[in-house]
Design brief:
Layout: H1 37-45, H2 53-69, H3 74-85, H4 91-108, H5 114-128, H6 135-145, H7 149-161, H8 166-177, H9 183-192, H10 198-208, H11 212-223, H12 232-241, H13 247-260, H14 268-277, H15 303-323
Helix pairs in contact: 3-4, 3-5, 4-5, 4-6, 5-6, 6-8, 8-10, 10-11, 10-12, 12-14, 14-15
Amino acid sequence: MTSIELTGAATHVELPDADLRLLNADDLTFAAVRPDAESLQRMLDHLGDFSEPLARAPVVGTITQLLLLGELAPSAGSAAISRGLHSEHNPALVEPFLSVGHHISDRWARPTDSPGLRSAMADAASALATDPVNRQPALRTLAANATTDAHWAVLDEASAAAADADLARRMLIRRAELGQRDDDAVARLPERDADPDAGIKRLKVLAASPDPEAKEAVWRAFFVDYAVPASRDTLELGAIFWRPGQFELLAPYAHRYLEELPHLKGGMLNLGVVIRAMYPHAVGDASFPGRRPRPRPRTRPSASTRNQLRAQSFVLGRLHRARTL
């Protein structure tokens, strides 16, 4: 490793010959890196080959940065993380890598690419589930992306041996997304593990389902009954609602979202969480970021609402830019 101390706006450096120069290896400073095309490809191809955790972590950080800049195809970033996870065992990296990889394959990838990328992420998670140190985050990611019979076999065995129903709930959400919702199984879960948030967990199963009545029930919970408290569960529920593979079913809700914004109730925390959670990242088309709510007479979205909307619209614009690569 070569350490450099910057002495001004530009600093001349002399470096040894190498196939790849990994800037900010060991994560020594706050730095954004924009590698050239050849270096980027080598970083992606060899994520799992870097010997030091603080060399691997900045590579995944660069993947997320380039996605937001619209300079990396989501499929390339997701595939690199899936490959790297097969040889990753550091618990400080496994869980965030799984989280980033799932988010890219699920929400950033083109809908046509997403199923294959999610299956690859499930393959990596299934392999990691054999490692006792990383088993829990691996099983959670596997449950979110399970595709094959082999994936479900691993999950069924783990769920049967689990002391609580958390993994079983996650499996029911994924099965619902695949059109296999089991309401009876959802109703039986409290018998196994009483959960004060069982109502929200049930909404997650409904949210994933490609069923018009189920979607409407979740929508009413957010915008009519105000039955979804501001929490991490709110963000997860929104992400589950907007399934990329359910575009035709969800497209009308993108317009309804804008109609609801001027009339949202609650404090700034609740407003901010709901606006972020229910923003239609998965189905909003390239023109959606330029649209604005149409207020009824004497109503207008608050300044906080407008700022939140701009922030989410920025992300959606970058998502669509990345999908063109």
